[in-house]
Amino acid sequence: MEKSCFKMFYIMIINILLILKKTDSLNIEGYYWREYAGKVPSDALAGGIDYNGNPIFMGQIFQNGKITPAKIYPDDNKAYYGYGKEHSGTENIKILCSQHPERFVWIKTKHDEIHLLTKHHIVLSGYHPGKTMYFGRVMYGRETSVGKVGAGINENRGLYITQNGEEINFHLFEILTYNETITTQHIDVRAN
Ligand SMILES: *[C@@H]1O[C@H](CO)[C@@H](O)[C@H](O)[C@H]1NC(C)=O
After folding, report:
1. pLDDT digit string, tens, across residues 75-125
2. Which atom of ligand 1 approaches the CA of 107 most closely?
3. Residue among 182, 184, 186, 188 whose CB has most ligand 1 atoms within 8 A, to mutate
4. How far is the CA of 71 from the centre of ligand 1 (A)?
5. For residue 120, what is the DSSP state?
6. Least crowded by CB within 10 Å, which of 15, 97, 171, 181?
7. Exposed/middle/buried for residue 51 (C-beta within 10 Å: 0-12, 13-18, 19+)
8. Quick one: pLDDT at residue 183?
9. 78-115: b (≥16 Cβ within 10 Å) or e
10. Is this prediction's pTM over 0.70?
11. Which of the listed residues 100, 108, 123, 179 should we mutate to test ligand 1's pocket, taking the one with most ligand atoms within 8 A of CB?
12. 158-173 burial by CB neighbour count: b if 16+ within 10 A, else e?
């Protein structure tokens, strides 16, 4: 009897230690992806603003061996992404979260100049065969929209956003970077 009681106590302590360790590693890493099923967590990072002034969050959707950057809106269980036109999905979605929104910096760049940003930590947002995906944003049609930037060895077409069901391409845009040495509280949610 005493022995099993001790065992339970031991397991409880181990669990608490594991939870503490997990929370701690979240803080160290700076940003992380949470599973998304329709409820935006309080630490989700807003990347844009829609025409009603609501935040647009940044997500990624996994399907057919691809991880595609996507838009997530509050009170909406879908993730929206471009692939020829606008598509949406409700499964296998993650949302970008951080305890340090002030460390995210949007840097102006061009489709064929991403490789010059060697001093910056560009936030990885997905993967397609032969292409690394990042988040980009642009001011378009009364909203600051976020979308995918695919960078490959031979193909750099820049930013693709979706609006009204269509996919739109931009060669000039801002790309999402993370700078862990920033300590100020200035948060920049609107594209210039
Ligand atoms: C990161 O932030 C620090 C502090 O603001 C700044 O000195 C440094 O230049 C930034 N790094 C990059 C790559 O912009």
Report:
1. 999 999 999 999 999 999 999 999 999 999 999 999 999 999 999 999 999
2. 14
3. 182
4. 27
5. S
6. 181
7. exposed
8. 82
9. bbbbbeeebbebeeebbbbbbebbebbbbbebebeebe
10. yes
11. 179
12. bbbbbbeeebbebeeb
Per-residue confidence band for 24, with pLDDT thresholds at 50, 70 and 90: very low
The best mutation among 119, 181, 184, 187 to test binding of ligand 1, ranked by most ligand atoms within 8 Å of the C-beta, falls on 181
Q: Which atom of ligand 1 is nearest to the CA of 121?
A: 13
| In the predicted structure, residue 28 carries a pLDDT above the cut 60 | no
SS3 call for 115: helix
Neighbours of 117 (CB within 10 A): 14
